[in-house]
Automatic annotation (TrEMBL):
Family recorded in the similarity comment: Belongs to the sigma-70 factor family. ECF subfamily.
Key word Transcription present: yes
Gene Ontology biological process: DNA-templated transcription initiation
Source organism of this protein record: Pedobacter caeni
Name the record gives this protein: RNA polymerase sigma-70 factor, ECF subfamily
Keywords: Sigma factor, Transcription, Transcription regulation
Length: 217
């Protein structure tokens, strides 16, 4: 059954106008995990990201009466989390971007071979390693679009860049991932893992052309 996306604007209105705590809790459940992962892209520590996200939500509740002008609460919260994460980075300098465990990684068909699961895990590690080679901005753009399904315009508003720059960074990310994963394929002599890598590289190519023609600003 397809999950229905909650009406975030409606929840926001109830929070700001009616002081509705249940709507506030619903908003947190809808966006909390996404915002946590987004913060980790910057600060690298899950515990720190949890504090940042919690602080942002607490401030939103305290300032709710002054926030009725917000039309897109999702973008508003992403920007707030980004700003708080950057503030933390400025305070603590030696920080590197890392990736949390992803429950929505590319999936492949299971086979009857028990070693298939191990090979798939190895492939996911290769994908994570390939993503980690991307420049910071390209990496964040790729993750926001891939994991959160955001449009160019939404990502542009969050990162304070133009939609065209978002598109350019995404294409650069996909191109580099195809190159890196292609090199893994050349070094991998095990047929099953190689086939999965080929599938993934082809999949990234399909994403590239799909986004060129179908993604709306």
């Amino acid at each position: 059954m397809k999950l229905v996306k909650p009406d975030l604007s409606g929840l926001w209105t109830k929070i700001c106008v009616e002081d509705d705590m249940k709507s506030f809790e619903a908003l947190y459940h809808a966006l909390g995990a996404k915002l946590l992962k987004f913060s980790v892209y910057y600060v690298s520590q899950k515990e720190v990201a949890e504090e940042i996200v919690s602080e942002v939500f607490v401030k939103c509740w305290h300032n709710r009466k002054e926030s009725t002008h917000v039309l897109n609460p999702e973008t508003y919260l992403f920007v707030a989390v980004k700003n708080q994460s950057l503030k933390h980075i400025r305070k603590y300098t030696n920080v590197h971007l890392v990736e949390l465990e992803d429950q929505q990684e590319f999936q492949f068909q299971d086979g009857t071979d028990p070693s298939k699961e191990l090979e798939r895990k190895e492939l996911h590690l290769k994908l994570d390693a390939a993503i980690d080679t991307l420049p910071p901005q390209a990496r964040i753009v790729f993750k926001l679009i891939k994991e959160n399904g955001m449009k160019y315009k939404e990502v542009a508003e969050i990162l304070k860049i133009s939609p065209r720059t978002v598109q350019t960074q995404l294409f650069r990310a996909i191109t580099k991932l195809r190159i890196v994963l292609g090199s893994y394929h050349e070094l991998d002599h095990r047929k099953s893992s190689s086939n999965d890598l080929v599938n993934l590289v082809m999949f990234l190519g399909i994403i590239h052309y799909f986004l060129v023609f179908c993604r709306q600003f």
